[in-house]
Amino acid sequence: MLLKNKCAMITGGTRGIGYAIAEKFIQNGASVAVCGSRPETAQKAYEKLTSNYPDAEILALSPDLSNPKSVKEAVDTIKETFGSLDILVNNAGISARESLYDYDPDNFKKIMDLNVNSIFVCAQAAAKIMKEQGGGVILNTSSMVSIYGQPSGVGYPASKFAVNGLTKSLARELGPDHIRVNAVAPGITNTDMMQAVPKEIIEPLINTIPLRRIGEPEDVANAFLYLASDMASYVTGVVLSVDGAVMN
Ligand code: NAD
Hints:
alpha/beta
């Protein structure tokens, strides 16, 4: 029960890594607001979570993450319903793998809008509440490509380098307000995002991972649990790799 009486907002909480974080947080005593891109997907995750954890306090929301007004309404709803907002997990993200020569500039903007701008917007809204409360935790989902780059689809690694920059800078800015800011950088993880990548690309990659397997969403969720909890009370500004020591 590492998160007893804590209240969390998780963007991209309806499936994959975000859903695993929601489950892990609930199992550890937190109240959780899962945010999805559409009301239907948020509702579906809500129904699955409430049927598995009938005693948990759960909310389903679908704010437009790049719109400050919509995000403010969401954080206010969480604060009114749960009584506080202690943990924000900025996990929603999209990727693309086009070569630079074929890259649609609108797609580059779309990736930056969700993977970077939404973190700024959500962190700003949540930090105002956390500061008033006397502290909190902001966690961001980065990626192994934030360290090495990747050989195509430049928007995605560029966005994750920016996630690390936001993490380290906000840790320095918000530390005096007792708000810790950290990121988790997953390696190849078994979610819908990865299922979209062809097997011919994934299988040779597995042999390059020292632990010889891809990660499961729960491997990543465990790192989020640690960073969200008081076990990490003196940890801020860190990008924690959870990638089986992949070098790619
Ligand atoms: P996923 O595609 O399974 O889930 C993505 C989540 O983001 C969903 O909950 C979806 O509702 C939400 N989302 C997508 N577009 C949105 C939008 N416009 N507005 C609001 N929410 C939106 O992906 P995943 O693999 O679970 O990825 C989660 C995070 O982990 C992402 O930030 C991703 O970049 C990162 N990541 C994933 C891997 C991997 O191998 N799966 C590796 C490294 C990092």
